[in-house]
Each structure stands twice: as structure tokens, then as C-alpha cells.
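Internal ticket #5521
Category: modeling
Description: The requester needs a full-assembly model to guide mutagenesis choices. All entity lines are attached below as received. Residue total reported by intake: 816.
Assigned to: D.W.
Attached entities:
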Amino acid sequence: MDFFNTKSIEEVYEEIDKRVDNYNIDSEEIMLIDAIGRISAEEVKSREIVPSFTRSTVDGYAVSCKDTFGASSTIPSMLSIVERIDMGEAPKREIKSGEASYIPTGGMLPKGADSVVMIENAEELDDQTIMIYKAVSDGSNILRRGDDISENSILIEKGKAITAYDIGVLASQGIEKIRVFRKLKFTIISTGDEIVDIDDDIKSGQIRDINSYVIASDLINMNHEVVDRLIIKDEYEKLREAVKKGIDNSDMVLISGGSSVGTKDYTSDVINELGKDGVFVHGISIKPGKPTIIGEAKDKFVFGLPGHPASSIIIYNIVVKSSIRKVLGMEEKEKFAYCKLDSNFPSSSGKTTYQMVKVYEKKGELYAKPVFGKSGMISLISKADGYIKIDSDEEGIYEGAVRKVIYI
Amino acid sequence: MDFFNTKSIEEVYEEIDKRVDNYNIDSEEIMLIDAIGRISAEEVKSREIVPSFTRSTVDGYAVSCKDTFGASSTIPSMLSIVERIDMGEAPKREIKSGEASYIPTGGMLPKGADSVVMIENAEELDDQTIMIYKAVSDGSNILRRGDDISENSILIEKGKAITAYDIGVLASQGIEKIRVFRKLKFTIISTGDEIVDIDDDIKSGQIRDINSYVIASDLINMNHEVVDRLIIKDEYEKLREAVKKGIDNSDMVLISGGSSVGTKDYTSDVINELGKDGVFVHGISIKPGKPTIIGEAKDKFVFGLPGHPASSIIIYNIVVKSSIRKVLGMEEKEKFAYCKLDSNFPSSSGKTTYQMVKVYEKKGELYAKPVFGKSGMISLISKADGYIKIDSDEEGIYEGAVRKVIYI
């Protein structure tokens, strides 16, 4: 591997961008109630105007506002009640000057009315007469036809991760089904002679597989599919077979370990052997995560992640997840916060540094505390809430500086 | 309903707290790989020390640091290579003064060595001799036995929502299964003569059910189970039957609509009829969301949410989700950010106001923009990123003030 030719993280994103169009992910139509977290494969426009009629937002009396002008608790306006409107029914009577109709919250405004007096500001003298104690203006306490959703407006953009609120908007339209991208398929391979699986006995010099569990469960959480999760010894043939099968069965192959400058480094050779373009990123000038390789075989991305859990997880977050978003045409939308650093953060000049942090609150301010440790440590990651990116031209950041924390 | 006896949101939380112990949710043991997003029902302690042996964090040469003191590119230290350590194997040779062993990243440190010189800072003269160009100190480039996870340390607290990173920590321990709380079961009922389902034709005066879709998909997203989702006309008997069945089949029943001061308000009576304590919250002094009722029947919570989507969703977020967390003994952990308000935010004095906002970034600062609109509007909600809580003794907030935004 040519480690003297590392790329910056920005160059890596450009290389990914160049090849993203090789993907052409199918879509499928699913029921709306199953769509949470899936990625919309279509732009959805409104079909129905919401509300489809002008409706009251309170319990009260539908009136023409002119009839309430000057009304107060000492000099109320007195109006005739001409109808009691039922929920879900169209009013039968038009309101004329001097008239009012009782209307429940959500009820349809009768013709001739332009506003609603809240029940708290009115009192019925008898069945036919209502006293109004407070004036209303045109449009008070009503939601006009189309106020919420107008005709032919864009409800969901293509590439949007569908939220519960999007589902509400689509439900309001009577849209029962939505076209989403199919789940992406992944093969995750952990390599290394020292790696043993969760149910194996552990011998001296060995460690348990961690990366494939973290990455697989995060992918599943994002509604993707892990078709295979394997541990492969550092043998060229075995790795080649596993990656080949992975490329055939999945959309992306993630290999962790085996990309350091060790003697048993076959990942790069395997990717190059399996197809064009082969490896196009030989190391990234970031910390942690330098020994990352990225290649393409049969138009599919193959990522060689570092073996250290903390490094592997940073690369998964900043490179793999970003590639998934690009393949599905998703917008980059991360939850983040600006936080004050509670101590000095060192960085490696010339390399973009990603520092995991814990976020906490003190006296109405958010602080970020670095989660320090060596890159092999998994316990660190589970204590972190997010990370800070320190640019390659910075020589660390001083205590008290305010920086953006990307939540993980 | 006694709307002159509304409770503050703090009082509502106290009332919920008093009754949470009536729940006793069973747990189940599941495979680790399926545990993402589930709630741990046990405190999990470490079983295995990680790493179980002192290991190298780089490719290099295991040495005694004393042997490198003073080494530089002009005056290198020269050491004898006594072994090439294999990954996953225990070293066969102890290091003595003047000796070094080649060690790969993750390899087990041999006895006698206390540090590792990176491959970049060394050069092999021949098979048996290595030149060291840079001194290392005790502990350089190694991770000591137990550095990551020590014996009997707490890995997962009871009540924690399990993340991908927690799964990594448990995998490192060979913990294949974890005990989690079973999924909570919910019945969601939308009431109202004007409400029609997603696949019905819509007539004048009617609107489609929105709330049950939003809430059901959010609950499913949190790994809970929606056993029933119903639309019930405003008829006492039908509502009573639906709520009774809901209480029998689920852990909580959510009713939306039917809790306004309208003539067809049966929710309160139904809850009171079905069992103790009956309704214990008759309205909350917040905006939006005032017409909320909360009761208990057969030791289960029944929530009467407002019918307006925006109000209903606020109450779902601040009351129902908080109750779920309490029932499962989860810590309150919300993602939030401090944002500068980009305009004046009015509020209702005497009521805690929840203002939905959109979060955006400008020149390295986060801003919150109010998503204004009437409480019946669903389109607003899907545009919001979170909400700001304005306390009851505030009379609104001025542009430029910095406030906490809770992400939804």
C-alpha cells in the first residue's frame, strides 16, 4: 500500500462523489405505517387541500366579526343562535348579520361567518340568544381551507429520511403508500489472525471482534440489511473469496483490520484483483483513521477500515455513512450543537483530527469534554456523545473555544 | 371536565411519578445483535479484561525504552531482532537489554518490553539488526492489559437505551445475550365524528386521521408495539369498549381528540368508569396542549391528547414519552442545542409555552426560527427540528436571546 500518497478527507469525498453514479438502487412501494426511517425514492406532492374546508380551531360561536365590534363584558353584543353545527357535517344555515351558530373545535365554518368567538367569551341567555363579551377580528380562531397544505405543494423531497411527522403529513393527504429505496445490503468482514467471535474461547494474544457488531447494529438501526458478518483469518485466498461473495451479494463491503502496514496486508490486493477501479484511496490524512483504503470492484464500494475500534468507528461515521447518503441522494443533515471546550484539545498539524467528546451542560451552557484514550479502546466510544473536527491547519484548540459537535 | 383546575407541567410530572411504580414490565433475553435501541433491564458488568494482554497499537518493534534513550536519526540505537511476533499468538521470547522483537498492530507485547518503536522510526539493517531513530518512553504505543475495560466495571446501566457502541462494548466481553425490557404495547384511538381514515373518501366537514399515524410510527421507531390503531366516533359506548379493550391488551392507551370542552366529551367519563384512580390531570396550563387529560385505570395510564395535530404531538413528546421513560426507569437524555432566537417569541404569561422551531446555522452560530401557525396545522410540525420551552413567568423572549432547543 502506498502510504506516502494519502488523501485529505475532502479529496476522499470527491473520489466518492465521482463514483456514486455507478449505483442505481431500486425502489419499492410500502405502506405508510411501515415507512418510518426509510428513504423516499420520489418527490411527493399534495393531492388534497388541508383543511379541505375552513374550520374552527376552538369551541365557540361562528360569527361575522362586524357583529362583535365594540363588544365587552360591560356592553356585550347580543346575537341570535341559528344552528348548532355538528362535527363532521356541513352547516345547514348561512350566517346573516345579527346571527351566530354554535361551532365545535374542528367544525366547518358556515357561509357568512369569518371568525369564531371562543366559548369562554360568550354566554347563552337562552337557546336562541348568545351574549358576546369580546370582539373578534376577521379570521380569528379559524383555519382557512388550504392554510395547512395547499394544492400541488411539495410534501416530501426525494432522498428524505421519512420521519413520524412526514408520515403525519402524508396521512393528512390520504396517501397510503410511498415509494422508498430498498434497504441497502452490506457484507461486513473482520480480518485478523487475532480476532475471535463473541462465542469463541479467547486465548492469549487474541481479542474479540467488536467492529462488525458496532457497524452491523448501526446499519440495522438505519433500516439497512447486513447479509453477512464474517471473521476471516489473514489469508489471501479466504479474504478474496469472502470479498468476492460480498460484492456479489451486497451493495457495499466493509472490511475492518488488515489495512495497516503490516506484513499480512492483503485487503488492497484483493480489491485490485476483483475489478475496476480497484483501490482509489490509499490512506487518509486524518487522525484517527489514517490506514483506511477505499476501492471499487464491479461498481461497488469496498471499504478497508482500520482495525482499532475507535478508528474504525470514526471512518464508518465520516466516510461510510456519508457514502450511503450519497448513494441514496440524501441530504446531509446531522444533529449538532456548538459547545465550549472544557480543556485544551491537541491535534496533529497537517492532519484533520477527529476528537470524540462527551457533551454536558453547566449553568445554561453546553460544554464538550474530550474522551481521550488510545485508538484501540472501545470503552471510550460508548462514553462519547459526538465528535469535533479539527482542521489540518489548526494546531489544536484552546480551552474555552466554541466548536461544533456532531452528535453520533 | 374541570378546566378551572388545570395543573402545571411540573405537577403533571409529579402525578405521573406517583403512579409509575404500578407498572412492572417483564424482561426478556435477546441476542446482542438484535439489541439496538432496546432498553437494558439489567446492570451489566465486565466479565473479561480488555485487552486481556498488553498489546501494541502500531506496527513496530517491541523494546525496553531504556535501550532507545538518546536515539536520533544521526545517532540511532542498534538492537538485535530476536523474534517476529505473530498476530494472535503469544510471543516465545523475552526481550533482554539490547534486544527487540518485530510486533504487528494488536500483537502481544513480549516480557521485558515496555514500549514499541513505530516502524516509521526504525530501519532493518539485516534480518537480525534494527536501527532505532527515535527514542520512546515507558508505555509508548502500547495498550496495557485492562486499560480499556477493567474487572467488574459497569458496562451498561439498567434502563439504558442500547446503542451500537454499547453493543461493541458487550461484544468485546463475549456477552452474546442481554436482558432487555419487553416492548411496551400501545393502543392508539383517534376520536371524533369528523375523523376519517387514510383510505376513506373524504366528505365536506371531515378531516383525515393524522395523530395516530404520527404517534404509532414514532412508537414503532422506538421499538415499541402498537397493538391497535382505531378511529372511534364520538359515542360513549364505542369509546368505552375501545378503551376497555385497550387497557386489557396494552400497557398504555392514547386517545386523541375528544378532550376539548365540547359537548361530545366522553373521554374523562370513560376513564373514570373503567377504574381507579380515574382521571388525575384535567387540563395542563401549557400552550399548546391545554385540553389534555390523564388518568389511570387498572394501573395503566390513559392519555387524552388534544385533537389538533401540533398540540397532540407536543403532549406526546413532553408527557407520553417522558412517562414511557419513567416506566422503564430510563434516564432523561435528550439531544439539544443552545440557539440564538432570530425573532421575538411571544408567550402566554401564566402558561408554559412550547414553541416549535427550525434550527439553522449562520456564520458558525446556531439560530432558532419559530415555526408559527395555528395549532391545527400538521405541515408546521414536519418543518420543525425541535422546540423551546418558555416558562410560565416569562412574557415571551426577545430576538437574540440564547435558549435551549430540544430536538424532536
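Resolution: model delivered.
Comment from assignee: Chain B touches chain A through 100 residues (CB under 8 Å).
Ticket closed.
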